[in-house]
Amino acid sequence: MTYLELVNDVLTRLRETNVSTVSETTYSALVGKFVNDAKRQIEDSYTWNVLNQTITVTTAANTSSYSLTGSGQKFRIAEALNTTSNIVLGNIAVSDMNRRLSFGTPATGIPSDYCFNGSDSSNDTKVDLYPIPDGVYTLKFDVTVPQANLTSDGTSVKVLDYLVAQSAYARCLIERGEDGGTASSEAYALFRGMLSDAIAMESTRYPEDNFVAI
User: Fold this and answer.
1) Which of 62, 74, 78, 87 is 20 to 30 A (C-alpha) from 48?
2) CB of 7 within 8 A of CB of 33?
3) Distance CA 156, CA 4 (A)
4) Are 39 and 150 in contact (CB under 8 A)?
5) pTM over 0.85
6) Please, are residues 77 and 47 in contact by the beta-carbon 8 Å criterion?
7) Residue from 44, 43, 40, 34 nearest 9 by CA
8) Is the pLDDT confidence value at 212 over 70?
């Protein structure tokens, strides 16, 4: 569903008039806020396949710090590879990296370890590498990155739209109070059950996942 379709789906559940744009009324704009809140909660609940991507970093000689372009600040990392040298990069502590880069003369060579360290002007996370690359290497970081907040009517949500709609509906019921229809607690309990089922179903495709029902 698009952002506008999600808002109208929730408005219909609330027995409210549909709108032609999310910002058409103050209430539809509020529903839009709840849609984004719901989307964010669902994204944070699991490493959804639809949010997975690979960020490629190409090193340069004698440069230890690189940006993970497009990662933002709320990502999860599954694995980091040096595909030029066919090795898995180790994720080490920032303190360990600081000592390696600061004590004596840092080693140069094939990068085999990394740590997250700060962000760039675009608010993307940066990584430090060790040994400091002595040439050009291709590094691949497999990450799960949440979708940006929905702002345009025609933008489609990436995570399961029916979960977003149910969670946003429950949030609207909490905000407006009971009105003779479904209680907010019932609507939220239904959402939690639907979310648990969706996670259980997706986790069957990934043997590395250890799913626990919520």
Assistant:
1) 87
2) no
3) 9
4) yes
5) yes
6) no
7) 34
8) no
